[in-house]
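Worked Example 4.2. Consider the chain below.
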Amino acid sequence: MTTPIQLAEQLSTTTLLRFATAGSVDDGKSTLVGRLLHDSKSVLTDQLEAVEDASRKRGQEAPDLALLTDGLRAEREQGITIDVAYRYFATTRRRFILADTPGHVQYTRNMVTGASTAELAVVLVDARNGVVEQTRRHAAVAALLRVPHVVLAVNKMDLVDYAEPVFAAIAEEFTAYAASLGVPEITAIPISALAGDNVVEPSSNMDWYGGPTVLEHLETVPVSHDLTGCHARFPVQYVIRPQTPEHRDYRGYAGQIAAGVFRVGEPVTVLPSGRTSTIAGIDLLGDSVDIAWAPQSVTVRLADDVDVSRGDLIAPSDDAPAVTQDVEATVCHVADRPLTVGQRVLIKHTTRTVKAIVKDIPSRLTLDDLSQHPAPGQLVANDIGRVVVRTAEPLALDAYADSRRTGSFLLIDPADGTTLSAGMAGASFAAVVRAAAPADDEAEWDF
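Applying the procedure from the previous section yields the following structure tokens:
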């Protein structure tokens, strides 16, 4: 039997996977998550007892595992997911951060929030209904956010007599659609979340399926958190000037490395000013080091007294991003108030916040068929569309296809600080990006 100390040692060496679930209403997302937590023995005894008690009060004989994630009173009363529910669990092979996202159209913005940092998305489909509009919408959002792995979980197979042709037809339709959006990897798994088929344990009812269970795939899908091969980017968060007798001439620039590797002696450019210098030193946890990499928090010292302040970006001189005041991007509008042409906003990119104005909203995306509605004039809550923003000061943005970290930004209401939209600079879908690039550029996505 594994002791707590042994388990802690095992978890300290395991990798972390962030994943999100999505699907239409009543497809069984919360039940799948509850089954995953229950069957992997990640539910505390008192939590399970509370669920069993709540289920009995609702007249249910068996515990409703969906209640493990649907914590809001409105969610339990309506039997739907409204807010993003985050759950943390682990097996001996991997640690997980799970975001259970809503399925309703009016909560598309919640899925964007949950999937924005995910490395994998589980899209559920009811085997009786097949691929519906919301399924296509969730696949499109996953593609927009450059989620590298997508799992199609065809749920409620017990209600279609575990028929292989039903599963095969749904898998073929979804795979073709998701692949057309540029999703690089799609894995289809037939399951019954209610009965537990192919969730944690293989199903004896579907001997025709020879692939992994949901948990097995989550434990083994290749996930790389190595950002050292990406474009090196260091957003400055704070300028350190002690001005004490001991550190009279010390000037350091503190922050977290967003991507890549920085080395002492490397020529760098400070953006947006364009001034150049050389890294004279790197301080990490009170010690001087010769090299540092993402996502370490460090203090960088430069050889020259150049003007550097919070919001500036330090990058290698031979690999610096272009600066621009005209930002073209895809945004998901998350606020209840609309985003309109001519509206004054703040744009927050890494540690830099500047004034801006919405110059144009060229189109709004219809996610069910990927058609573009031209010149909508405004975007309302849950809309996804293209925008052109003119900033008061230059920004050093990467394309979102190159870096999810330095290619993303927020549009903020300057009056009260409300987040209006989440933006992704550059082209919309991966397929559009790759159409103009060599085929082997797929490996260059920065996750």
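The chain has a mean pLDDT of 84. The first strand starts at residue 15 and ends at 23. Compare this with Example 4.1 before moving on.
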